[in-house]
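Most newcomers find our protein records easier to grasp once they have seen one. Each record describes a single protein and holds just a pair of labelled lines. A learned vocabulary of local backbone shapes supplies the integers on the structure line. Nothing more is needed to start thinking about how sequence determines fold. The record below serves as our worked example for the rest of this section.
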Amino acid sequence: AGWAAVDYPRLAVDGDRGLHVVWVRASASEGEPSQGIYYAHSADGGEMWSEPLELAQGAVDWPQVAVSEPGRVHVLWHDASDSGTWWHRWAVMNAPQQAEGSAPSRARGGSSESAWSQAERVPGQRGVTAPAGFVADGAGLLYLIGLADDDTGEPALLSMVWEDERWGQQEMHLMDPAPGEPGVAVALQPALGHLDVTFRGELQMGDEAPQKDLWHTGRAVPTAVVTRA
């Protein structure tokens, strides 16, 4: 496409083995703001792709992509210019089934702008460092996990759930140790009903230098059973 650079690629795979990719169109010079978030989709394992669709413009980074349930794709990204605000768009990509033996389509459901919701700020997520964790259970629920400070300045793990086409109330969990470098890693085991979170933390032991380690926590979540009709 003649772009100077791309960055932060992320990949999700749906139940029909379709591939969903998001990335940042980066600037040529280090230190300059990015130029947008883009999305593309492949229905045949990456042989053919939809045309890149611009979902956001400006100083953005750390896009995430997840498939909440069949045909529903969600993209989340970080606004680098506004105190760690996060934004969200989603699409319903329904398409007719491909006839057996026919040539693969260019992209199941396409990726037209009209298929996507308007960009909306994720409520309550100001100051959440990037990257955040973003996972789906495949049956309609999305989990957003991030690191931030609470109202008193104490380090906390923030979590939100997307259900019934809206974000639920933010939950905040104070942490000891304090977070180290930004970022969390999140894994979901829908059949076991468990969400796992790993982050880098610093534990202060008296007058010694902070001890830096990887830390793990987790919580029970509703069990998702996904079946094919």
User: Anything to note?
Assistant: Residues 95-109 have pLDDT under 50 and may be disordered.
